[in-house]
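Internal ticket #5521
Category: modeling
Description: The requester needs a full-assembly model to guide mutagenesis choices. All entity lines are attached below as received. Residue total reported by intake: 672.
Assigned to: D.W.
Attached entities:
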Amino acid sequence: MKRIFGVPVADYALGAGLFLFTVIYLIAAYGYEAEARAFPAGVAWVMLAISALDLILMTDTKLAVVIRRIINPVPGAAVTPAVSVSPYPIRAQAVAIVWIFIFASLLVLAGILYAVPIYVFASMRFYGRLSYRLSLSVAAGTILMVWLLFAVVLRLDLYSGVFFADF
Amino acid sequence: MLDLWLSGFLSLFQVQQLAFLALGMAVGLLFGAIPGLGGTTALALLVPMTYGLDSFSALALAGGVMGAVPMGGMITAILLNTPGTAPNAATCLDGYPLAQQGKAGLAIGAGASANALGGIIGTISVLAVLPIAREIVLLFGPPEFFLLVISGLIIVATTSQGKVLRGLLTGAFGLTLAFVGYSNVSGIERFTMGNFYLWDGIRLVPSLIGLFAIAEMINLSVKGGSIAGDAKNVKITNMSQGLLETFRHLGTVWRGSVIGTIVGAIPGIGGTVASFLSYSMTVQASKDPDSFGKGNIEGVIAPEAAINAKDGSMLIPTLAFGIPGSAEMAVFLGLLVLHGMQPGPLMLVEHQVEIYSLIWALTASCVMASFIGLALVRPLARVTLLDTRILVPVVVSIAMVGSYSVDQTIENVIVTSLFGMIGYFMIRYDYPRLPFVVALVLGEGTERYFHQSMLMSDGNWMIFFERRICLILIASTAFLVFLPSIRAVFRKLRGTSRTAPGGRS
């Protein structure tokens, strides 16, 4: 993988993301009147400075080592870049996240009563590669539990989804 | 005073009151264990049902719920890294690593006994403080509240050993998100991108479910296997070990209970801050701060003691001023009004027996729910052996529906998913989540207290340096921030003095 200042590019992802978020936040903050933006903008400026420093500290440079020693006075701590290389492939991580968003989309579109069993079954059968029988029984058990708890005991209206809103 | 304590105690020990206490405990344990529900939902559900009851039975029921909810929340926090209630999020930090090491029983045992002890210490503190409660709460004005919040944030950020800067960064990130929504200060909505849902700000419970439950489920999904890994690991844990651990760390229990009692008595601060602050102070005070976050039993004891201790003291602002310190207390306030008790200074005079009865009910619930939790350690610990391919979709489903159920808004599900992703990235890239959560909880209040302080002083910043409590807060924060540096210097000096004579140790 390509490296910048001795560190893989992927390891800068969250730090760079936070930096970018802060810049956008600051731009948005200056769209509000002075009183409304005073405190959020103040916090965002501080965050921008910390975020920039964090990005510098991620690098494997002499400057970064010196600063890390100053701000982390714990013996032996933080002399190496504070990044953690995950032992798991990026694809596996992306797939796990995508499953959550698939479920969230299903909930919004199809509602709780359909989305829960479909997600539990699909996740166990196609992602976990478990048997049809086990996947079906756990899916049925989960939706039964959800229905009993939320609809019967708590008397909540279970969201019916965009597709079935009129039913 | 003693006759009032006794009258309150005796009023609880009637068959009907005890039955309602038991019912409240059962509901509290169940609702506490389900992420997204918690004490607020349980109380909201039960309040209308108490209409036909006498006030003592209704208070026994409410006390049962409020005392048992933290125990239920602790169980899932330790076993699944999914805090049943927001304050239990602090328990995840060391409770879950213990479960991963196959020491779930130990953690639950220690947490349960810390819960019970915290509840008892909290009650004793409240009984002592209640007569002078009014004077104490009135000592805090906006500048004190502002500094209390800022101090809490800084202390929490600096407890992230080796990651101080990242602690401050995630704290600032949490603050920026806390400013989303309608601003009570300026009267306009900010950072909502035109989305009406965001006018109320980023809702805490859905975001916490995402940050902890969903993030951990993504993590488990990537790792595979089971939480504890090996069945042999679960067998070696037992509750007596956990109990002993709590009694070995009585100082931690005391510290947590005192923090819980003080923070609980301050309106609007809440149990989440109490538990995280107790955790942070324990890390600061520890001789081995690096072991926290990796399965240090004190990391379970400290927040659990604080959570139950704050339950009692949270009643002080609710009863004495009619200011509910949390959403749960707001619902409880509704129960009081329903039963003809108007919270406020007069309540402390007119309904003293009811108040003491409630405090005893709360304490009894804390202790008894802990015993029930201890009895359930072994069967519950086996949850950690479940295959994650089964566990993940089931927990994700319940967490998402729980998130929706908070106020029956489907947008909550989207917030939960997004925070799940953020939480996972924080785990993956080693950014501490603790300061982020505390900032998210306190952000709105921080801005309000700041503006109120500025109004009081005509924009003069010296208001934060002229008041006695402010100075105490600044001094104690500075001490805690520089404590690691002071320790490092002392360690270095000690090392030098040992090697000085011959240059060798």
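Resolution: model delivered.
Comment from assignee: The helical segments of chain A are 13-29, 34-58, 62-71, 90-110, 112-127, 132-153.
Ticket closed.
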